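Pilot study result, target chain (478 residues):
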Amino acid sequence: MTPRPTSEAPAAAARHAGPEDRPARRADLLAAAAGLLLVVAAAAIGTVIEHANGSLRVNWPPLYASWFPHVGPGTPAALAVAVLVVGYGPPLAARLPWRGLLLACWAAAMAWTWSLALIDGWQTGIARRLTTEYEYLTVIRRFDDLGPALRGFTGHILNNAPDHWPAHVAGHPPAAVLTFVGLDRIGLGGGAWAGVWCITVGASAAAAVLVALRALTDEPLARRAAPFLVLAPAAVWVGTSADGYFAAVAAWCLALLALAATRRTGGGRRSAPVPAAAALASGLLLGLTCYLSYGLTLIVLPAAAVLLLARNARPVPLLMAGAVTVAVAFTLAGFDWWEGYRLLVERYYQGAAGVRPYAYWVWGNLACAVLITGPATVAGVRRALAAAPAALRRLRPSAGPPPGPAGRLAVLVLAALLAVLIADLSGMSKAETERIWLPFAWWLLAACALLPGAHRRPWLAAQAVLALLLNHLLYTGW
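Predicted structure:
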């Protein structure tokens, strides 16, 4: 068992911090400043381009948002949550029993997400978010007869197809819309329940990342990440967009895989089913993830990093069995994933993506990533990139002892960053990545655990301030 950290740990770290730490802290600040400059450049250059020819198709580059300074019923709650987490989050994360920390992290992330969403009010911020012309709830009745709807799903993807799907339904495999069809079937229909679902499930991603970090690195490092996972600027888009829900499914897939790969079964039979069940459940969630969003097939990169860090391929057969089960079920129901993706690419360029310039969005998207993860994450990712080469060398079988907890976290962050870069370079993520990349943002946020304890609260405050400014100054489109 890893000994439970105490509130003395940050103080001890501060006492032992010497002059050799100053260059690293300066580098952190320079990285955060570079992230800020990237955002400013994306906003300034994007505004010029949009005013010149309207080709970006966003009102407030690089975000799909409009300038709209406002306050709302969620403002006092959001300020209170921010103050409480900044003031008490780090010591509580160090002291709470592990299971209590997981529940507290989920509850606090929900409080943060709910309060941010309610800055726009109940109707605008939550109940009507998923009922616009682009969203899933507009087509619920077309799934009353499920079989024909799935068999004919690909026939409505293209813009010139009869009764073509709205943008978000056409842009995703059918598991996305079927989630809301299922909610409707059990009596939880309408935008309000859909919003509640996305926020409640989406906020659980914070707990899932903690589970994975504890399994793959160690408990103290996971505890250090907890307050940053709670006060994530990404919560602005978790409440309320379906991509927040997708992010949680992907996060729990990786968390269960981490448990399956690192859990030791021992010699008795009673403990053997634990890793097996986790591996199979992870596979089912992996399959679901791929049928929620085509782009989330890139989650296999962090999944590969999990297996690499655990030095354990035993979960792979059950992982694949679970994923294949989901794929076979959808295929037998009449949906062809590959045909759906082919038609989506065609539909993608029939719409705004056909005019949005790749030359701007290939770097403007990265400014969106800075905004959803915050300056502390930029500094943490800098530390992860610095540690990654040595950690990767120590992962070789002939390199001796494996990397330490910080090195293992660096490799996990690197895998998430690689997924983001591939998505970016593909050209299939031109704009709106503030919601599309939420599933990867959670793993980048984990890099904040690498920041020194003595300076953790200022970084945490910076995260909260960014989220509050975004939600109070802008009206986000999702």
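One observation from the pilot: The first strand starts at residue 65 and ends at 67. A full batch analysis is planned for the follow-on phase.
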